[in-house]
Specification:
Order of helices and strands: EEEEEEEEEHHHH
Helix content: 10-25%
Structural class: alpha+beta
Mean pLDDT: 82
Number of strands: 9
Strand order of the largest sheet: 2-8-7-5
Radius of gyration: 21 Å
Shape: globular
Number of helices: 4
Distance between the termini: 37 Å
Length: about 230
């Protein structure tokens, strides 16, 4: 399959501007139009100066994939001559809302991240009353890209890695999951040995019952999640 971005691959904005993701289209020689199958992940905070990446992934019926990215640069406002002293009466443009463009398989390109109203999660808000990960995840499944991005963010923090935040569960993400499982084998792998796992040193790369539980426990110990019923 081939993903084609709508509009430029790099967009430059000034802090406080609004942003609407132009989206992308996807086509394939056998499956024809795959635009409706594109999964998109990324976050653009138009109120904070920085460089943000939106990632588009698609997979065809044969399991082949394509990935494209768009870079959004949020730049500082240029000095309009009003000076930087406290008495300046020119005012400043209020910061724009954070735009989360993570979406599931039903994402439709073009306008899906319109920012007429604040939406998505609030940056810096800590929520510990629900599970960090809600889904089981593995390579080859039709995973929720937002859940995979959260997994990648967790693995980078927990293991000191630099996984690309693509929202796509590929070989790199699987290898990181296996590393996490071995690191916490007592909580993640050992419970499976009586049910056929070769040993507690045999990772699966599958974010399943015990792996998902331990990720959620490390993110929010207050949840005090019980050991799930196995197998």
């Amino acid at each position: 399959p081939v993903i084609t971005l709508n509009g430029a691959s790099t967009i430059n904005l000034t802090v406080g501007d609004s942003f609407s993701d132009p989206g992308a289209t996807a086509s394939d020689a056998e499956d024809s139009d795959l635009t409706g199958s594109i999964t998109t992940s990324g976050l653009v905070d138009t109120g904070t100066i920085g460089t943000y990446t939106i990632t588009y992934n698609v997979e065809d019926s044969g399991g082949l994939t394509d990935t494209e990215t768009r870079t959004v640069n949020i730049n500082a406002q240029e000095d309009d001559g009003g000076g930087n002293n406290g008495g300046s009466g020119g005012g400043s443009t209020p910061p724009g809302p954070t735009v989360g463009v993570a979406a599931g398989p039903n994402f439709t390109s073009g306008g899906s991240a319109t920012v007429g109203e604040p939406q998505g999660e609030v940056l810096g808000a800590a929520v510990c009353s629900i599970e960090y990960l809600r889904d089981y995840l593995r390579q080859g499944m039709k995973n929720d890209s937002e859940q995979v991005t959260k997994l990648q963010e967790f693995l980078n923090k927990e293991l000191g890695l630099s996984l690309p935040m693509t929202g796509f569960f590929g070989q790199l993400t699987r290898a990181a999951v296996e590393q996490f499982q071995v690191k916490h084998k007592g909580e993640v792998l050992k419970p499976w040995v009586p049910y056929g796992l070769e040993s507690e040193n045999t990772p699966t790369g599958y974010v399943y019952k015990t792996t998902k539980r331990w990720i959620n426990m490390l993110e929010c110990p207050d949840l005090n999640l019980p050991i799930p019923q196995l197998p």
